C-alpha cells in the first residue's frame, strides 16, 4: 500500500518471509544462452508473450527501484538486496519472476523453451547467489506433459519450493491440467498462482487499468472454486496452493457461498468429499499484498472471519508500484501473535522451511 | 436457504417487501397475442433465447411450487398468492420474471418484440391483478435506442418500479449502454440487475452447475466495478441499482479493494469523483437471497463491515429451489431494527414506496 521511507527503522522484531518478489531479466536476451535451436533462432524476431493490455497510469514500478542505468526494476541483485533483503532482514524471499510464457496463445514449444531457459537463468543468477532466495519453476501449462517434465527436471534443487502457474484464462482445476498437480505433489512442491496479464472479467477485457486491477481478484476466486469443485484436492490430497497478489478479504464470503452451494448441490460433484471451506483452510494460503486499508478494526474482523490465523502469508510484490512495506502493511494494532504468523510462521509451515 | 414448512406460523410482526419474485408464463405461446408481425410468425419455430447450459442437479424449483397440471412453477397467480403473498402477509412483491431476450445473441429485433410482449402480458396478467405486485420493464439492451423506447412506453405505469437488466456478458457500465440509465433516471426508475443464464467465469463456461452457481456472484462484483469506473453515477447521479440474487457478503471486500485502487489510480478515471465505496452505499442495494449460513454472529459482523444497515433488501427468489423463507432467512439473533430495515424499510425507501 505505501512505500516505507528510508528514514524509518526496522519494521518489527519478527523475522520475515516475503512470498512474492519479482526478480527480472534486464532484457530477454539474457535467456538466449540457455536456449537451444531452433528456439534460440525464433528469438531474433521476438514479439512478446501477450503483454498487459494497459498503459500503466502511474508507472508499474517503485520509482526508487528504477535503476540508474535505465535497466528494468528488479533486474539488479545488488539493488534488490539493499532495498529488500538487507533492509528488512529477511529470512527468505520467494522469487516469482514476471514471466508469461504460460499465457502465450501460440507456439507452445517456444513457450516451454522460454520457461526452461528462464528457470536455468534464474537458478544461476539469483537462486545460487543468495541463500535467502527460494525459487519457482516456470512452466508452459499449454502442454501439460512438457510442463511435467520441466517440473521433474528441477524439483530436486534444494531451494526450489514451488511451481508457478499464472492466472489467465485457463481453468487449472479441469482434469486436463491434473498431471501438473500430481507432479507437484509427488515432489512436495507448492503450486503458486499469481495474476497473469491475460486475466479477464466475466465481460471480457475491462476498458481501464483500474477496472482490470480491481476485478483480477475475481479470477482468483473463480480459480479456487474451479480447483475445489474439480476434485484436485481429493485426487492429490497433499496439494498446496499459494495465491499471490489476488487479495484475501474475499475469502470469508467465498467460503460461505461455496459451503452453502455444496450443502444443496454436492450430488453433482460426488468426488468432492469435504466442505469447500475445509479445502480452503487446509490447502490454500493467500499472500497479503496488495493489502487493503479499511480501519484496522475492520481488517481484523475480516481476518477473524477467515476462521483461521494460518491462511495469510506476507508479501511485498517488490519492486512494483503497489509494494507493501513490512513497516506499513499490517495494521500495528494486530496482535503480535497474528503478525508473527503472517510475517513468518505461516509461510515457514506451509512451505515446510526450517 | 431453506423452505419454511407449512406448520410454521407467521415469520415476524414486520411488514415485508420481497424484491425478487419470479412470475412466469406457462408457455411462451401466452405472449403471442401481444406480438405483431413479422415477429409473431417467427415464434412458430421458437428455439429459445440461450438456455442455461446445465441440467439442474436437484431441479430448479421448489417441489411444492410444481403445479398439479404440470405447468411451470410461478405461472399460477392463485398458487403464488397462497404460497407467498398471503402466507407471509407481504406488502409488496417485485416481479422480476424469468426472461432472457436480453441475452439473445442474434435476432435482436425479435428480442425487443419479445420483451415488449412480455411486459404487456405481465401488466395484464399479474400487475393489474393484485395491488401488492410491483413490476419490471424487460428490455433488449442489445439495441439501446429500442430499449429506451420501451422504457418510455411503460415508465408511467403507476406500479412499474424498475428496468430489469440480466447480468450476462454485456458490461452495462460501458458508454454504449448509458442511454438506458439516462432513461431510467429521467423516469425515476430503479435499474435491477439479476443473474442471467449466460454468466461466465473469467475462464469461460464452468464444467458444473455448482461451480457456475458459485461464481456467478463474481459477475455482480465485476458489474459494480464496471458501472462505477465508467462513471454511470457521475453522469446520472440519481441512478439506483438493485442487485438481485448475486449475494452481498462480498460487498465489504470489494469496497475496500475499489477504494484502495481509486486512491492510487484515480487519475485514469477523472470522471469518477467520489470514493467507490460512496457510490456503493448511495446507489446500490443488494437482495439477500441466497443468503449464506455462517454463524449468525459472523453474518452480523459481515453486515456491520458493509458500513451501512441500509444496503440489504429482503428477497425470496420464489419459486426457485433455493427459496429463502422469511421465517428462516435472517438469523433470529439479528437486532430487530436491522431485521425491520432488511425486510421492509430499505426497499420502501430505495424504491420510494408509500
From TrEMBL, chains A, B:
What Pfam families does the entry give? Answer: Amidohydro_2 (PF04909)
UniProt keyword annotation of RNA-binding present: no
Recite the UniProt keywords alphabetically.
Lyase
InterPro entries from the UniProt entry: ACMSD (IPR032465), Amidohydro-rel (IPR006680), Metal_Hydrolase (IPR032466)
Per the record, the GO terms for biological process are: secondary metabolic process
Name the domain of life this protein comes from.
Bacteria
Q: What does the record give under GO molecular function? A: carboxy-lyase activity; hydrolase activity
Q: Which GO terms describe its cellular component?
A: cytoplasm
Residues annotated as domain Amidohydrolase-related: 67-353
What protein name applies here?
Amidohydrolase
Q: What species was this sequence derived from?
A: Paenibacillus sabuli
